[in-house]
Amino acid sequence: MRNFKMILQYEGTRYQGWQRQETSENTIQGKLETLLSKMCGHKVEVQGSGRTDAGVHAAGQVANAHLETDRSPQEILEYMNSYLPEDIAVVAVEEVGERFHSRLNAKGKTYCYRVINSPLPHVFERKFTYRVEERLNIDAMKEAAKLLCGTHDFAAFTSAKKSKKSTVRTVEEIRIEEQKDEIFFYFTGNGFLFHMVRILMGTLIEVGLGKREVFEMTEILASGKRERAGALVPAKGLTLLNVRY
Amino acid sequence: MRNFKMILQYEGTRYQGWQRQETSENTIQGKLETLLSKMCGHKVEVQGSGRTDAGVHAAGQVANAHLETDRSPQEILEYMNSYLPEDIAVVAVEEVGERFHSRLNAKGKTYCYRVINSPLPHVFERKFTYRVEERLNIDAMKEAAKLLCGTHDFAAFTSAKKSKKSTVRTVEEIRIEEQKDEIFFYFTGNGFLFHMVRILMGTLIEVGLGKREVFEMTEILASGKRERAGALVPAKGLTLLNVRY
């Protein structure tokens, strides 16, 4: 068996997320596994760097799969792109050592959350952005973002049920960039809990709207309580940009 | 009756084009007229600066309508955006003199045609671009574009049937800009015939692929024959950017 690493792009709009489900045909992992199983004639498991939720997009998801095949990486890429639906694409395939594992070897990830801050709808970006009509205070959001960076217990910023697994993560950077009436939020870290980026975003937006004070970030982190943090913002604004190894 | 000018954006993907049709509910003009007729309680006609074909997008279509209403331009904008489907938006409304006519007063228009020049699919841009896998020669296309600019009889570059109407138009500029693996073609002129931009594009692409020589442009123009020009490229790559008055 040869091990192949691939970089994937997808628009998450019409999928139930990355993870294969018994009850739904409609997942990214499911689509890829069905296709590669057909190509190889054996059951293929595709391992992603992590799950993306229903509706979340990816510009640089990384996955790997062990395949019994004579095809070159380029041939695999071409085969996949000719059969995948138009909202999923493979942008790179390379052969890697048999021990490479896209999730276990991942050292960090960057997500981008896009906010349209305008009273006007954005027709062309509507599927990739979340629109906030009221003017956001970017300086306040930047201050709050600084307090959220670093190594913390992010238990307050996840929808996952309490378990024995650690909820400590390191957020290396939250970069906020304004471009006309759009605001890009880049989150880089060693790993993110279930819903973590979207709850961080909801909290930052509440700071931007003046509904919360910057200093509250420290209190929310210390509390470890989900109900202290902000709302979960919609999946459609979120894109997994890249995975670092 | 007050006369209102509006600037519209739409993704043309799921519409039968701009122009109202007896047989289809699914046109941009139809959607706008139905909505404004409901708002005003009288039959409203919305006059566009020109038709866009099925599948063509607009970032700055201009239209006007005579309305019996007490609403302010801002109120009309908000009313419309709250009822329009998410792939149509009004980005500006202003009251204008009763003689303003969006089509008759238009002095010029700019369209953009977007080409992805890559062997890889582009998931996020797929609905707004046309992909050409083979490498295009941009310098050759720029040379050919120069020959197409100016005041010419563009009879060879339209799908419209021969009629007594003049097919002379002035193309002021065809600007070609490369950005990574995407090529933007900007067409500015005083008016464009039916399918003209898409046939000009098809012809330029054939030059870029080496299937035609630059000098042929002059011959095609002189011939006035549709069959001498290149193929009609897909509507989805085309966007009406703005209308000049």
Descriptive notes:
- Two copies of one chain form a homodimer.
- Chain A has five helices and ten strands.
- Chain A is an alpha+beta fold and 245 residues long.
- In chain A, strands 1, 2, 3, 4, 5, 6, 7, 8, 9 and 10 form a ten-stranded mixed β-sheet that branches.
- In chain A, α3 crosses α4 (196-208) and α3 (138-148) runs parallel beside α5.
- Chain A is globular.
- Chain A binds chain B through residues 9-11, 57, 59, 81, 86-89, 91, 120-124, 126, 128, and chain B through 9-11, 57, 59, 81, 86-89, 91, 120-124, 126, 128.
Structural Rg of chain A: 19 Å
The H-and-E topology of chain A, N to C, reads as EHEEHEEEHEEEHHE
Task: Report how far apart the termini of chain A are.
Answer: 22 Å
Extended strand count of chain A = 10
Helix content, binned percent of chain A: 10-25%
Shape descriptor of chain A = globular
User: Can you summarize the main beta sheet of chain A?
Assistant: 10 strands, mixed
Number of helices of chain A: 5
Q: pLDDT average of chain A, as an integer? A: 96
What ranges of chain A have pLDDT less than 50 throughout 5 or more consecutive residues?
Answer: none
Note the quaternary state here: homodimer
Q: Biggest protein-protein interface? A: A-B, 18 and 18 residues
Strand content of chain A: 25-35%
Structural class of chain A: alpha+beta
